[in-house]
Amino acid sequence: MNSTSSKQAPTSQDTRILCLTRKHSVYATGLGLLLTTFCASSHAEIAINVPNANLSIYGRVASGVSYVDNIGAAGDSVFRAASNEWGTSLLGLNGSKEIAPGIQGQIKLETGFSAANGNSNAGNLFSRFATVGIKSNTMGTIEFGRSLAYSNDAWSLDPMGMNWSGVDSLSKGHNWGTWNNTVGYRSPNLSGFEAGLQLSLGGQAGNNSAGRSLAASLSYTHANLNVRAIYDETRDANGKLSDLFNASSEYIVGATYKIQSTTLFAAYNRISASDAASGTDTAMDHSWVGVNYQLNPDNLVRVGLFTAKTDVTNAKANLYTVGWDHKVNDALSLWASAALMDNNKNAAFPAVGYWQDAPAPGATQHGINAGFIYVF
Asked: Exposed e or buried b for every residue in 315-328, given b needs 16+ CB within 10 A?
């Protein structure tokens, strides 16, 4: 997860910068003091400027409460901590150093974690990013390592901002992926066009497609219009597209258009698993529309309608969502959202990202969550 989506990274408006410089002889001591200060008081992004590296620490903590009903055949309900439901909590470190005019070497280390229990989302030290690369102002960026899949670019097409009820609810987190062993390229902006291409290398001898993942993203922006196309595929251990949600390919085409305080969203998504077992679904058509309305600088209202239909089992569902983000100050925000999933008799899609809490086939499910977001 997630959203942005994959989820939203801190922006310059979300952070305040504190710059500290140390002589080489006290780098280690200075960094230790900075980390101690950071742990004690998270009031600003911390930037460490030294001759051999410009490093900045940033993060976000998102947590609250949630409620889901009609879980399983018994129709149970649950009230619990809403960990990462607006977007994942995260802690990151960026580093860069100019190696030639207009060219920088750079690193990115970032982990997502649950504010409810403090655990890493994926159980490893850097669950979202552990990359090293080179960025050219004119040629783009190439990077290597563990990275969010470029299919997380679907965040920009999701009226719900890739939260727990949105673009990935009907596709089982298809665009929340984090990939190991990646080689990725992002182009600079060229007359409104931006492109990305990413390959996750399976590395299995004798079968180069085993466990391989591939993603590509192309966008065009002109004035208030943004148009985007995304493709990705993830193969199983045998190099096959064998499962609609776990080993499949997809493409997304969509657009957003801003009219004063209103942003309109529309997209179509096709997911395919051509090697799926007989009698199971081999494709799903997924589409959505939505709107974001900026009531004022501190209040954003989100509305979305998502629909999906599979080919073999004829599972069909509609997801209705509404959300509210309230900015208290540059660091602290509040959020609340609600969702209703309407399944046909063959479908058991959940209203939220907890697929283990899916309802019985044909059941309607509701999900509500709310909480706080603190960015530094």
From this structure: bbbbbbbbbebebe
